[in-house]
Amino acid sequence: MENWAGEFGKDYTDRNPITIEQLNALYVQNLGITRDKINELFFKDLQVGSVLEVGSNVGVQLISLHDKLGLRNLYGVEIQNYAVDKSKELTKGKDIHNITGSALNLPFKDKSFDLVMTNGVLIHISPEDINKVMEEIHRCAKKYIFGYEYFAEDYMGVDYRGNKNLLWKTNFAKLFLDNFPDLSLVKEDKYPYLSDSSLKDQAFLLVKDENTLRKTNN
């Protein structure tokens, strides 16, 4: 958390896309598909009146949902103050609200949002903390959980810009499903990298079913 809240996190923000056009170009280069298209495939048929992105950085994903899909009442939580300040400039005049906060203790009541999502954030959460972060995401989600993360069959650490203990890959959809019996999988896609098809991103949409939870508890 200290790394991402400090200069290391600021450098991350400065070298990553801050517009939808830049983000789409990066996805086409790496995967052959725009991020807008991926969002459309997963979000276009959902009836959601509110969205929370955990680890929203400067809010590019929220801007995409706002501008391309017409979603409103969008919120982001980001640990890095620099990114939050930058997001306020980029989202000015839009129904997007980015605040400073930690994924380990989201500053919202239970079931505050129809959908809670992450985009390349769970990969940067330590395996020691991942269950707590998932519990917070699950707690704040009223109906849906969406994730877009690096994929691996097993939990594995990956060197990140010469650093250890800053990036991990696994099957995050399965991890959610294993930990929360009230969740079921709505949709999942994997996107191989054009430069190396053994490397994949995973997008997944999960839905809460409280009847399943009650049956499990009985």
Structure description:
The chain has helices spanning 2-5, 7-15, 20-31, 35-43, 60-69, 81-90, 130-140, 172-179, 210-217; strands at residues 51-54, 74-78, 96-100, 113-119, 141-151, 156-157, 168-169, 183-192, 200-208. It has 218 residues and is α/β, with parallel strands linked by helices. It has one domain (2-217): Vaccinia Virus protein VP39 (Rossmann fold). β1 (51-54), α5 (60-69) and β2 form a beta-alpha-beta unit. The longest helix has 12 residues, at 20-31. The N and C termini lie far apart (39 Å). α4 (35-43) crosses α5. The strands form two sheets. Strands 3-2-1-4-5-9-8 form a seven-stranded mixed β-sheet, sandwiched between helices. The protein has nine helices and nine strands. The chain is globular. Residues 214-218 have low confidence and may be disordered.
Write the layout of secondary structure elements.
Elements: H1 2-5, H2 7-15, H3 20-31, H4 35-43, E1 51-54, H5 60-69, E2 74-78, H6 81-90, E3 96-100, E4 113-119, H7 130-140, E5 141-151, E6 156-157, E7 168-169, H8 172-179, E8 183-192, E9 200-208, H9 210-217
